[in-house]
Design goal:
heterodimer; A: about 150 residues; mainly alpha; B: about 650 residues; mainly beta; 45 strands; about 10% helix; disordered N terminus; disordered C terminus
């Protein structure tokens, strides 16, 4: 019996001192997973955060059009027709600017929380992908949408 | 258990036992005790602590498991074609498997090695060797893809590789088979001793981008090089290689290469080699080898045939190479974390010899040589020996180290892991494996900073261990805790191919750097369709190039007509997604190569040569959304003399991409 007690003491000492070394392995932090990643998530914006231009900023319109052609055109047409996602014609008349920006940069959050976004998902049946569009780029897209809806 | 093993050591003839077969351990079925399941359990939603990079052996690939769960995360295609990912089938990846023998679609990957900085894993790259057609591959650990493969000339059977130096200055490649070289290649095999030579190659690694280059080769006697380890800390600047067949036999090696009591561990002073090169002592030899590089901006590999290699001959360059006698047919050759001790493993020997680096330097200084072997000094065995671990078990193969001064050696014949103390060479613990263990791995074990915690056994045979699956059973690994004073079995997990060697690295060193997508803005593929507006089809003679885009849930174009018999159709498919883990696949009925699997933002090309007239379906193979099944289209092939014009569309003419 004394032997077993000795063993128990010894092994606890062993584990005790090797524990200091093991702690050098940082614990896996799940929330850090998205850090340093090229994936972009904006913060949710409100309408008061957005300043509208009159007349439109033509540089932004042109930049927005380029982004549209690279990352949006595959699913969205500029007329009223729904392809994978809804057509963009009239979107600036039916949706608030902040809603549009949030759909572009925070689509996962919108699909979780926003009723209108959820209704669209029921119609389209494809979750809108996060296309890694920055806050600034999303503002340019909005400018292009105003342009598409005939604003000068 | 212990007494049974010791009895067999005393009672059995070493060689006879080795040749008979490995011992199947008894009592392993009930070896798991207490809280083992809890320690190996990683709950759903939780992450593993370590990545385990495991060689796929004769599958030619490398696999990635989590520890302690043993969950398989990924199979990385390296030296073998992989239709699942189009590796070796897509036009962009075909050059990666080019060699001086042409396209070689398979190899035998034995040893992964993870890059280090200051002797500690840095999580940048994994290297792997091709044992059959000698090559070294570099895998980028941000993408988990093979980014470079370099062929090794003057080599046959690239086994003792790809071991690396402290700051990944060099990756080495030692030839298993010595071969005739220097143009004297058509010689009788019987003239082995006269005409066959060995080489070890030092491949430099660019510390910024990992780019490899064969810096130099050392010309050596015609022995077989088996394994290797770089020196570290005080022995940084040296490299140690085990070699067998110092008898220089060329037939029936299991007898003819076991004649001598001792073969060698070879010590190479590579800093000295660098000095000789700087002094212009190297000789350039004409050779042919392929160097293949994958460019992540064009998503395309290129293959270049190189024709020259710098060779150093130690006979003319003293102080660069020494042999140390090592009993008997040494296999493993491992440097401990301090760099002072080099552990040999005579796989037919009854002892584990441990060499002292301090004593090696002293013996060299005093010219304490036993003899010479083909012009290379052989150091006095007793002068360089720290000591021998006596009666450790049967068939010692490989040794890894923990962070507390202990070594763990695998024993193939007696199927066990034996833990012993480096300082006084005493055996302190042993556990059975199931069974015929080859390599073993401690996370960080080959580095200056082992993380300890686990030892993993990679076993050759699993008979009676898992549900049967025909004549061949699952390959297997076993995870043991080494946190206490006694090793404890926690888990068995099956592996692919032959789990030869492996290394493990804390997840935190890799996970934060993982690439999620390829940015469309950075895609420089010459045939990319960056946006649907660029999607189109062009004819150049009998070549048709389809610039195709894919996104949930359609291709553009999805209907193509005007392809003719005799055409070579290149489908360059760009995945327009910018969302993590949304690849799209691409497959055509009757395609004789493979499918494509295209990552977000990437472009890949499938070459299709229609073999008959008709209309061929194509579709996306990777389930991408609720409308995945709708992601499809048709390609019409007309007779060679047809006047059918080349047209393409998605959604008909009126639905052409908006202008």
């Amino acid at each position: 019996m004394p032997f077993f007690i000795l063993m128990a003491v010894l092994s606890s000492l062993f584990i005790g001192c090797s524990g200091g070394v093991k702690k050098e392995i940082p614990p896996v932090d799940i929330s850090k997973l998205s850090e340093n990643q090229p994936e972009v998530h904006g913060t949710l914006v409100e309408d008061k955060d957005i300043v509208l231009n009159n007349p439109l900023n033509q540089d932004w319109v042109s930049s927005g059009k380029n982004i549209y052609e690279l990352k949006c055109l595959a699913c969205h047409r500029l007329n009223e027709e729904r392809l994978v996602g809804p057509g963009w014609a009239g979107v600036t008349k039916t949706r608030k600017p902040a809603w549009i920006i949030n759909m572009i940069t925070n689509v996962d959050v919108m699909l979780e929380t926003d009723e209108e976004a959820q209704k669209l998902l029921e119609q389209c049946l494809v979750r809108m992908p996060n296309q890694n569009i920055s806050a600034e780029e999303s503002r340019h897209i909005l400018e292009f949408m105003f342009h598409n809806d005939g604003q000068k | 258990m212990k007494s049974i093993i010791f009895k067999s050591i005393i009672g059995g003839s070493m060689l006879a036992l080795f040749l008979l077969s490995a011992c199947k351990p008894k009592g392993m079925q009930t070896a798991v005790q207490g809280d083992a399941a809890l320690k190996a359990y990683v709950a759903p939603g939780q992450y593993d602590e370590f990545y385990n990079f495991v060689s796929g052996g004769f599958s030619g690939q490398m696999s990635v498991y989590g520890l302690p769960s043993g969950r398989l995360f990924r199979v990385i295609p390296v030296f073998s074609v992989d239709p699942e990912k189009g590796w070796g089938y897509s036009e962009e990846t075909k050059p990666m498997l080019n060699t001086s023998h042409g396209f070689v679609p398979w190899d035998d990957l034995h040893h992964p090695a993870l890059s280090t900085t200051d002797g500690i894993h840095d999580g940048k790259w994994a290297f792997g060797n091709a044992n059959n057609t000698p090559r070294i591959a570099r895998i980028d650990l941000t993408t988990f893809r093979t980014n470079e493969i370099i062929e090794i000339p003057n080599s046959g059977g690239n086994h003792s590789s790809p071991f690396i130096t402290e700051n990944t200055e060099y990756v080495v490649a030692g030839t298993r088979f010595s071969v005739p070289m220097d143009g004297k290649t058509d010689v009788p095999i019987e003239s082995y001793k006269e005409n066959f030579k060995g080489t070890v190659s030092f491949i430099s690694v660019n510390k910024d981008n990992g780019r490899m280059n064969i810096a130099f080769q050392i010309l050596l006697p015609g022995v077989n090089f088996d394994l290797a380890r770089a020196g570290k800390a005080k022995s940084h600047g040296w490299f140690f290689f085990s070699c067998y067949n110092s008898e220089q036999a060329n037939t029936l090696l299991e007898v003819n290469a076991s004649q001598k009591d001792k073969d060698f561990v070879m010590a190479v002073n590579w800093k000295k080699a660098e000095e000789y090169i700087a002094a212009g002592k190297g000789v350039k030899k004409a050779v042919r080898y392929a160097h293949n590089v994958f460019d992540e901006s064009t998503h395309t590999a290129t293959s270049e045939i190189k024709t020259e290699v710098l060779v150093l001959d130690p006979k003319d360059l003293p102080g660069m190479v020494y042999f140390m006698p090592c009993p008997k047919s040494p296999h493993g050759c491992d440097t401990d974390p301090t760099g002072e001790y080099i552990v040999g493993s005579g796989k037919l020997a009854a002892v584990i010899p441990v060499f002292s680096f301090t004593k090696i330097l002293a013996a060299i200084d005093q010219k304490n040589f036993e003899t010479e072997y083909e012009g290379i000094p052989v150091l006095n065995y007793d002068a360089v020996l720290h000591g021998e671990v006596t009666k450790p078990g049967l068939g010692p193969l490989h040794t890894e180290f923990d962070d507390n001064g202990y070594a763990y050696t695998s024993f193939f014949v007696s199927s066990e892991i034996v833990k012993w103390k480096i300082s006084d060479l005493t055996v302190v613990d042993r556990v059975p494996t199931y069974y015929s263990i080859g390599h073993l791995c401690v996370p960080g074990g080959p580095t200056k900073k082992p993380w300890g915690k686990y030892v993993i056994a990679y076993n050759k045979i699993t008979k009676d261990r898992y549900l049967p699956t025909g004549p061949e059973l699952a390959q297997s690994a076993q995870l043991y805790s080494i946190e206490g004073d006694k090793m404890k079995l926690l888990l068995d997990f099956p592996t692919i191919g032959e789990p030869h060697y492996a290394e493990a690295i804390p997840a935190e060193l890799i996970k934060p750097k993982s690439v999620k997508i390829f940015k469309l803005e950075d895609n420089k593929h010459p045939y990319a369709a960056l946006g649907e507006k660029q999607a189109r089809v062009e004819r150049k003679g009998n070549e048709v190039h389809v610039y195709m885009s894919s996104i949930r849930s359609h291709f553009v174009p999805d209907n193509i007509e005007g392809i003719r018999m005799g055409d070579q159709v290149y489908f360059h498919v760009t995945n327009l997604e910018q969302d993590w883990d949304v690849p799209h696949g691409f497959a055509i009925k009757g395609a004789s190569n493979s499918e494509l699997l295209i990552m977000p933002g990437e472009t890949q090309t499938l070459l299709w040569k229609p073999d008959r007239i008709g209309v061929f379906p194509m579709y996306c193979t990777d389930f991408c959304s609720a409308l995945h099944q709708e992601m499809q289209g048709y390609i019409r092939v007309s007779p060679a003399a047809s006047n059918q014009p080349l047209t393409f569309s998605t959604g008909g003419k009126k639905d052409k991409p908006a202008q």
